[in-house]
């Protein structure tokens, strides 16, 4: 427990100055005084300081920052953008020497003299080594890391009541749920056996696609702290010369990345959830290589259908469908005021349609920002898919600044039969309207016959009540009505061969004059 309290105090001291700055934004003198306006530059500076603090505090807090980059329900857009830059780049000695894990787990199976370090991440370190005449890669969990992360997760959970006390009422619901989400995502990423299984599944799903490379897993060498896989050479996807060297256009690669991740999430239901530039590479033969499957997820069929519906309704601007999908995904409670939420969603769509260019990040940010007045949360699976969309779009825009992620998504959904083309969608809307109108049209002749019968028998009476009491009406109202009708008739008769409009105009002037006199 002593270690827990010392860590709690250390984290508190590191975040205390920034916390005081935020509190002074609400009350200049903390306990009293007016709120103060803070410029965008100040917020960007704070976001950068928070990012640096998370890097210094270690793996658990790096993951917290990465997760917060997908939580616009908790942090403002400026901070979302800053946290999105957090990648798994920490010193090799953080959390202990991974080489000791390799020696204890695989010392008898591998020639450790051929072992070479490649890269370090927040949870693991990567080596290459010779095995059966081939060069393979080892992702090795840092020793003692699980205990450190469990302690830090307890520290983070200990801060939740404090954050709730000072948070806005509309943010409390999200904050109370987010600690569970952090824990679920981070502990799953520590499960290396799960990662090896997901890698194998994704590799099988892309077995027929020669453009995608998922490293082959050597299951006989894997354990709860080691993932052994094929070593795939490649250049970082955002390297200026990488694509040019293999003769691939940036737009072509951006489209391939977008479609690959859409297939994972919406078709296969098993997806890699961390597509930042460090995990994407282009091979010597121009293929897309995907590394590091620690942050990944499996979806149930129902979750897959609901998330597909989320993409479809957002792309089609289907407000009612979007509302139903958000409830189905447990983003919104089933008891939420549907009328009020619908009005908010209509505003979101109107705001987005007023922009000449729309990005996936803007759609998600706008959507969740406007839902702040309602209790809502983003379940972990939805949160990871949001991260895939926003981070993946960022990579695509880096390759091609003009890349339209929404258009690529629409095209993919049309090809998969998830949504119709524009003409098909219009025809489907017409068919839907006709199906809804058919019963009414079928009953119309009988109703018309009944009404006409009542008219013939003098049984049809129309009663009207004046909105305001009148004192005998306006004098000459009849003359004004007749004059107006004659003016309209004059306009129509102008196109007649006979000069009938002259008589109509004279009568119109006569009745108008009579009205003026009265």
Automatic annotation (TrEMBL):
One Pfam entry for this protein is: ABC1
InterPro entries, from UniProt?
ABC1_dom, Kinase-like_dom_sf, Prot_kinase_dom, UbiB_kinase
Domain of life the protein comes from: Archaea
Stretches assigned to the Protein kinase domain: 112-452
GO MF annotation list: ATP binding; protein kinase activity
Q: Give the family, as the similarity comment puts it.
A: Belongs to the protein kinase superfamily. ADCK protein kinase family.
- What this protein is called in its record is ABC transporter
């Amino acid at each position: 427990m002593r270690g827990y309290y010392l860590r709690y105090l250390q984290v508190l001291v590191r975040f205390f100055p920034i916390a005081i700055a935020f509190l002074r934004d609400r009350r200049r003198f903390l306990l009293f005084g007016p709120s103060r306006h803070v410029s965008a530059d100040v917020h960007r500076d704070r976001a950068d300081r928070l990012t640096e603090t998370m890097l210094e505090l270690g793996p658990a807090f790096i993951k917290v920052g990465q997760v917060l980059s997908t939580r616009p329900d908790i942090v403002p857009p400026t901070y979302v953008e800053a946290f999105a830059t957090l990648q798994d780049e920490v010193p090799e000695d953080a959390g202990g020497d991974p080489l000791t894990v390799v020696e204890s787990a695989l010392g008898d199976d591998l020639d450790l003299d051929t072992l070479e370090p490649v890269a370090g991440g927040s949870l693991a370190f990567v080596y290459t080594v010779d095995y059966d005449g081939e060069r393979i890669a080892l992702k090795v969990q840092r020793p003692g890391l699980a205990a450190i992360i469990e302690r830090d997760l307890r520290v983070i959970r200990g801060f939740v009541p404090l954050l709730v006390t000072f948070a806005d009422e509309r943010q409390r619901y999200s904050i109370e749920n987010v600690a569970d989400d952090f824990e679920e995502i981070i502990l799953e990423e520590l499960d290396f056996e799960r990662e090896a299984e997901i890698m194998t599944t994704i590799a099988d799903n892309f077995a027929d696609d020669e453009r995608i490379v998922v490293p082959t897993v050597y299951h006989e060498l894997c354990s709860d702290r080691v993932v052994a896989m094929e070593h795939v050479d490649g250049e970082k996807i955002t390297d200026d010369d990488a694509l040019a060297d293999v003769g691939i256009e940036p737009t072509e690669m951006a489209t391939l990345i977008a479609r690959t991740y859409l297939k994972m999430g919406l078709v296969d239901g098993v997806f890699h959830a961390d597509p930042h530039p460090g995990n994407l590479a282009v091979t010597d033969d121009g293929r897309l290589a995907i590394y590091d499957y620690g942050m990944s997820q499996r979806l149930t069929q129902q979750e897959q259908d609901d998330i597909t519906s989320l993409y479809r309704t957002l792309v089609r601007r289907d407000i009612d469908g979007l509302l139903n999908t958000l409830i189905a995904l447990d983003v919104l409670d089933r008891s939420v005021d549907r009328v009020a939420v619908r009005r908010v969603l209509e505003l979101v769509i109107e705001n987005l349609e007023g922009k000449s260019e729309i990005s996936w990040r803007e759609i998600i940010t706008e959507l969740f920002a406007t839902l702040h007045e309602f209790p809502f949360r983003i379940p972990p699976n939805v949160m990871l898919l949001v991260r895939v969309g926003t981070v993946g779009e960022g990579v695509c825009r880096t390759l091609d600044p003009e890349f339209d992620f929404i258009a690529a998504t629409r095209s993919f959904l049309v090809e998969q039969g998830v949504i119709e083309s524009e003409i098909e969608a219009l025809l489907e809307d017409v068919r839907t309207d006709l199906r809804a109108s058919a019963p009414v049209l079928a009953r119309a002749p009988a109703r018309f016959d009944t009404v006409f019968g009542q008219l013939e028998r003098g049984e049809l009476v129309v009663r009207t009540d004046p909105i305001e009491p009148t004192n005998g009406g306006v004098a000459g109202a009849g003359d004004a009505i007749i004059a107006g009708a004659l003016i309209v008739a004059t306009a129509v008769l102008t196109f007649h061969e006979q000069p009938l409009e002259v008589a109509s105009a004279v009568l119109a002037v006569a009745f108008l004059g009579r009205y003026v006199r009265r």
